[in-house]
Amino acid sequence: MPELPEVEAVKNGLSRLVCGKTIKDVQVKWRNIIVGDAEKFQLELIGQTIESFSRRGKFIIFQLSDYELISHLRMEGKYMFFQTEVPDNAHNHIFLEFSDGSTLVYNDVRKFGRMQLVPKGMALMQANIAPLGPEPFSSSFDVDFLFDKLSHTKGLIKPALLSQKIVVGLGNIYVDESLWQAKIMPTRLANTLSYHECQELYHAIVDVLSLAVKLGGSTIRTYKNALGEAGKFQQELHVYGLSGQPCARCATLIEKIKVAGRGTHFCPHCQK
DNA sequence: TTGAGTGTTGTCGA
DNA sequence: ATCGACAACACTCA
Questions:
Q1: Are A225 and A15 spatial neighbours (Cβ–Cβ below 8 Å)?
Q2: What is the pLDDT of residue A224?
């Protein structure tokens, strides 16, 4: 499912639901979701208490007594919480059973999501997390940083923003929305953006993501947060999924093309 | 019925 | 460094 706003919503839901709980048992039904040895994962997790949750980019990090559990939902991963019995579902893959009888289930139709258990303090050093760009709401992400990074980037602006190396958290929806708001064509070469355009883009990214976080993310297909709630940002979309509809700024019809293998929505009149 | 498309990100070869 | 193709999977829609 998720980009940064959805991951943030899931993290907040988990925080409310399972903080303080102690893991009594673990079931792994689909081993490929676990990075590393699934038996070791299971044994090490038993007896751990969930202390808190954090997020880095699109990764959720469970802070446990002695470990950190890194979780990435990829396309369709979901968490579901049950006080007692867990209803049957073919896509429930990982079960964390707590000492109070409740259960946290990881459900993932496409099985693309990943979980990795690492020693406490090691999550941010992992090979897939260490190279990530700054958080979009952090002070290290600003206009000068964005301009500097983009001016040294070959290739197109959209794949550059999707790479998570310049800034984290944008996926296919919020990249298209940010570029629309900044009036920049997704196919522009990244190193041709002027400083002024980087200003526009910086504000677009921060505005789009912060509004989406405030609205609990977007529910496009199946996304639900850990409390089973849908997001509300889909009502604020201007281009994503709206090809053939009039642009909210100029009424030109929104077009859809393929950029770097991804469906890409834009206004051919406003976006330069 | 078949094939294209789907909110992600690894890897591999050019 | 970057891109495209492909892989990991299941499901929906034309």
A1: no
A2: 64
Q: Which of residues 124-153 of A touch strand C (CB under 7 A)?
A: 152-153
End-to-end C-alpha distance for chain A, whole angstroms: 29
**Nearest amino-acid residue to B4, taking CA and C1':** A263
Burial class (CB in 10 A: 0-12, 13-18, 19+), A54: middle
Q: How far apart are CA A253 and CA A270, in angstroms?
A: 11
Claim: this prediction has a pTM higher than 0.85: yes
For A40-58, what is the mean pLDDT?
A: 97
A262 as an active site residue: the answer is: yes
Residue A259 corresponds to which tokens in the numbers above? 């950029």
Instruction: Write the pLDDT tens digit of every residue in A87-120.
Output: 999 999 999 999 999 999 999 999 999 999 999 9
Q: For residues A39 and A92, is the Cβ–Cβ distance under 8 A?
A: no
